[in-house]
Amino acid sequence: MREVLADLLRWWSAGETVGMATVTGTFRSAPRPPGAAMLVGPDGTAVGSVSGGCVEGAVYELAQSVVASGVPVPQRYGVSDDDAFSVGLTCGGIIDVFVEPVSRTGFPDFGPLAASIQSGEPVALATVTAGRPDQVGRHLVVWTTDVAGSLGSARLDDAVGDDARGLLASGRTATLTYGPDGERRGEGLSVFVASFAPAPRMLVFGAIDFAAAVARIGSFLGYRVTVCDARPVFATARRFPDADEVIVDWPHRYLRAQVEAGALDGRTVICVLTHDPKFDVPVLVDALRLPVAYVGAMGSRATHDDRLARLREAGLTGAELDRLASPIGLDLGARTPEETAVSIAAEIVARRWDGAGRPLSHTDGAIHHTHPVADRVSASNPASG
Q1: Residue ranges of the XdhC- CoxI domain (predicted)?
Q2: Theoretical Cys-Cys bridge with 131: which of 11, 156, 189, 334, CB 3.0 to 4.6 Å?
């Protein structure tokens, strides 16, 4: 929903009814992830995408029908359908889509939800996508300490609220299954929980020309990018226009402050580009002991060997050193700062999704990996065991 939020809020605020289609499940090579959304506005405008173009025409017509009837509809599109080619889903994937009318009357708590998403406050939206007719389409907005709306009963709200906070803490979006009144080991009621956590952090240490390119591609990938260097002459906002913030501080001191502030999480990526031991060794000692997604360090093979020796002397274990991506990036033959940034970004993506970094033309099986490495857990209700 995040990518269509501005348009949805504008129509909602004007008292209009909008048809919203949300991807709630994907199988095999589906092109868009759960949470991707498409709107059909009151003027017939289409905003967003649920399939990268594959089934947008069919979803558009369904959304118009849902607005007219006022009744939300779950729909599956895929190659198993007799009319798969007629709707254009020829990629081999299957997607579950939930189409619902959104208005001030039907979803009065959308305003606070939108405000939290826009401000970066962690919030989750739970929507009943399958169940009794009086339950389907109900919403519960979940914050870390509060809720708004209701899914139909206090017991169900309590169960979904607890589970949604667990998903929100890890930035995960998922469909959960319950009994009709929130029984965790029950069946018959499906709730799609979309988590809107703040953007993940990318910390770039070393205010060099390569850092500017890494900041640019990090921002493109959706990270909140911080460039940090102890040298004020180099660490300036003018040199790093794509960074969200430029900090003048010793890297290890800034990293420790961020840890103490609770500003990092398991999605954080750290790129150490200084290739100067007085800067990179202290920050790597701390970074490699943190439960973050990625820690990479720039340097030649000789620099890498020297760095490992210094890190061992500083007390890092073999397991901790194994987490270090060094020399940083995938082997793309990169030379320029921009090419190097692409290789670094490619390695970050590969590690996140457990990709092999090989050409897809040389591999078999699914193109898209189902879950991030950190989220490689059962798709069932996480609280049900």
Answers
A1: 11-78, 117-179
A2: 189
Can you list the alpha helix ranges (DSSP code H) found in the chain? 5-13, 56-69, 84-87, 110-119, 154-169, 209-220, 251-260, 277-287, 301-313, 318-321, 337-353
* Model pLDDT for residues 336-369, shown as the tens digit of each residue: 999 999 999 999 999 988 888 888 788 776 665 6
Q: Cα separation of 292 and 227, whole Å?
A: 17
Q: Is 26 helix (H, G, I), strand (E, B) or coil?
A: strand
Average pLDDT over residues 289-306: 94
State the residue for tokens 């500017």.
Answer: 212
Give ranges for CATH 3.40.50.720 in the chain.
Answer: 201-357
Instruction: Sheet with 139-142: list strands edge to edge.
Output: 147-149, 139-142, 123-130, 189-196, 174-178
Output phi, psi for 102, to 5 deg: -120, 125
Q: What is the Cα–Cα distance from 373 to 120, expressed in whole angstroms?
A: 24
Task: Give the DSSP letter of residue 59.
Answer: H
């920050």: which residue's tokens?
283
Backbone conformation region of residue 220, classed left if phi is above 0, alpha if psi is from -120 to 50, else beta: alpha
214: CB partners within 8 A, 6+ apart? 202, 204, 271, 273, 340, 341, 344, 345
201-357 is a CATH 3.40.50.300 domain = no
Residue 203 makes CB contacts below 8 A (sequence gap 6+) with: 226, 228, 255, 258, 268, 269, 270, 271
Of 191, 192, 165, give the one whose Cα is nearest residue 178.
191
What 3-state class would DSSP assign to 269? strand
Quick: pLDDT tens for 14-71. 999 999 999 998 876 666 788 999 999 999 999 998 887 678 889 999 999 999 999 9
Sole residue written with tokens 């989750």: 124
Nearest residue to 59 via CA among 33, 79, 88? 88
Do the Cβ atoms of 172 and 195 come closer than 8 Å? yes
Neighbours of 318 (CB within 10 A): 7
